[in-house]
Amino acid sequence: MTMSQPTIDPLLVADAVAGLWQSPPVLPAKWLYDKRGSELFDEITRLPEYYPTRRETEILRRSAQDIVAQTNARTMIELGSGTSEKTRLLLAAFAARKTEFTYVPLDVSVEMLTLAADQVAVEFPEISVQPLHADFGDPDLELAEHPGPRMAIFLGGTIGNLDPTERAGFYRRIARALRPGDYFLLGADLIKDTGRLIAAYNDRAGVTADFNRNVIEVLRTGLDATGLYADDFDHIARWNPPEHRIEMWLRARRDIHARFGAIERSWELAKGAEILTEISTKFSLEKLHEELGTSGLQQLESWTDHADDFAVVLSQVA
Ligand SMILES: C[S@@+](CC[C@H](N)C(=O)[O-])C[C@H]1O[C@@H](n2cnc3c(N)ncnc32)[C@H](O)[C@@H]1O
């Protein structure tokens, strides 16, 4: 009897090969979001320390009607849609117009995408829900085939997971993938007290630590590894002042001697050495406006919550 081999994702292989042998080792944040990672992130959004989701929800509740009136969009494409939880505020406002409307949730996490799309389709039978399993970093991403005007939305502060070079490329690609006159709605976390920021990424219940460590499990199963265990790593959340960002690292608790069967390579990490697993950049409103403006996205309006913790910015493709 032959055992079936697990399928190996060539994109995980490419990112692991490009990142793990760097100094310090680094992995793109998207690998945090397998099925379990997506469920853990959903749990994070309800933690007392994790203010961004509550603040962005407050803004969307207040601005949804305004966004509908300003854009009159016929399609909403959500990049990194996750559970689509907050998005329901926008969907309800669009559905109330009683005109045809298409919602395209897009995510790398296929299980969460399918579940959320099914739930939204049941809750909003008048909306056409067309889930798209894709990477928002894909240079060939095509969004303009859906009825216009289109609005791409990028919520949850996910923009902060991209470094300045990646953000510039991302904004340019979005502007190119849409058409002139289409809209882009961005939710971004603002710079604030460092203690609150660190607490939001290092909660007392340890959910963010489990979320971070889960990427080791993604590597172990995805690359058929031996000698690699999530419990051998500590979760670190650290503020990087010059870059205005929280960084999530995994620090080895012991010397790691791992072997990746899928790529036939060994990987050594000394006790105390760290892997960078996610950055979460925080912005000033001025910085957001400047970056959008230089990428061909003209800002129409921005909203903040009552505590000025989070911002939602509506812009239009020039
Ligand atoms: C910080 S969560 C935000 C989820 C949701 N938008 C919210 O506001 O709560 C990031 C989401 O983006 C997805 N994601 C991360 N990298 C991605 C990529 N390169 N392409 C598509 N989706 C991605 C994750 O699976 C996850 O659902």
Automatic annotation (TrEMBL):
Which organism's genome codes for this protein? Williamsia limnetica
Gene Ontology MF term list: methyltransferase activity
GO BP, sorted A to Z = methylation
Q: Which residues form the Histidine-specific methyltransferase SAM-dependent domain?
A: 14-316
PANTHER family associated with the record? ERGOTHIONEINE BIOSYNTHESIS PROTEIN 1
Q: Which residues cross the membrane?
A: none
Gene3D superfamilies for this protein: Vaccinia Virus protein VP39
Q: What is this protein called?
A: L-histidine N-alpha-methyltransferase
Name the domain of life this protein comes from. Answer: Bacteria
Q: Which UniProt key words apply to this protein?
A: Methyltransferase, Transferase
Q: Which InterPro entries match?
A: EgtD, EgtD_Methyltrsf_superfamily, MeTrfase_dom, MeTrfase_EgtD-like, SAM-dependent_MTases_sf
